[in-house]
Design goal:
The complex is a heterodimer. Chain A has no helices and twelve strands. By secondary structure, chain A is mainly β. Chain B has strands at residues 4-7, 10-13, 19-25, 31-38, 42-49, 56-57, 65-68, 74-78, 87-94, 108-110, 114-118. The chains are: A mainly beta, B mainly beta.
Chain lengths: 115, 119
């Protein structure tokens, strides 16, 4: 069964600074990988996804993530953080052999943006 | 642009009471899901429905029942609520796309959530 680890519960970044949120997964084959963002009181919105091909994927709001098979990682990055990026971020892995039916989510990383 | 709609947004129950959380999607998706979100635990799958007429247990199904009423609607029922069911509940839906034919559809879209407190 697949699993996801987001080692950072909270991260504080200054506005304008770069950001990297870590995600490590466990799965026996190449997984499907996702990053979702949740603003306070809201549902989850997809930022980006990796299914196959180019290991550097671009998402919405200026985010990108890189799939590194050797490290079982799918870290999320943004070169310059804006105050509106303050939210909770979830990494998720989907297993290919279930027809993409189920996602397993990490425990989330809460991003705080300081002025 | 309704997407996935959940009702109610908030609910307070007493232990032992029952209630049904409603979810409807207007994207003609085949698959629907119910998750619960608890602090420090991320989202955990309660039940899912791969298509109309089918339901399956997820990671934490105990204490819940579901009904896939039709293609649009997927409800979650708590027959006898317990304080441990205090949580935020999210419904999601996903379009089909088996065999890699249309990967763009293999994304789960989430509702805004129902915040449930059981006293």
């Amino acid at each position: 069964a697949q699993s996801v680890t987001q080692p950072d519960i909270h991260i504080t970044v200054s506005e304008g600074a770069s950001l990297e949120l870590r995600c490590n997964y466990s799965y026996g084959a190449t997984p499907y990988l996702f990053w979702y963002v949740q603003s306070p009181g809201q549902g989850l919105q997809l930022l980006l996804k990796y299914f196959s091909g180019d290991t550097l994927v671009q998402g919405i709001k200026g985010f990108e993530a890189e799939f590194k098979r050797s490290q079982s990682s799918f870290n999320l990055r943004k070169p310059s953080v804006h105050w509106s990026d303050a939210a909770e971020y979830f990494c998720a892995v989907g297993a290919r052999n279930t027809g993409f039916q189920k996602l397993v989510f990490g425990t989330g990383t809460r991003l705080l943006v300081s002025p | 642009n309704a997407g996935v709609t959940q009702t109610p947004k908030f609910q307070v129950l007493k232990t032992g009471q029952s209630m049904t959380l409603q979810c409807a999607q207007d994207m003609n998706h085949n698959s629907m899901y119910w998750y619960r979100q608890d602090p420090g635990m991320g989202l955990r799958l309660i039940y899912y429905s791969a298509s109309e007429g089918t339901t399956d247990k997820g990671e934490v199904p105990n204490g819940y029942n579901v009904s896939r009423l039709n293609k649009r609607e997927f409800s979650l029922r708590l027959e006898s609520a317990a304080p441990s069911q205090t949580s935020v509940y999210f419904c999601a839906s996903r379009g089909s796309g088996l065999n890699n034919r249309n990967l763009a559809k293999n994304i789960q879209y989430f509702g805004a959530g129902t915040r449930l407190s059981v006293l």
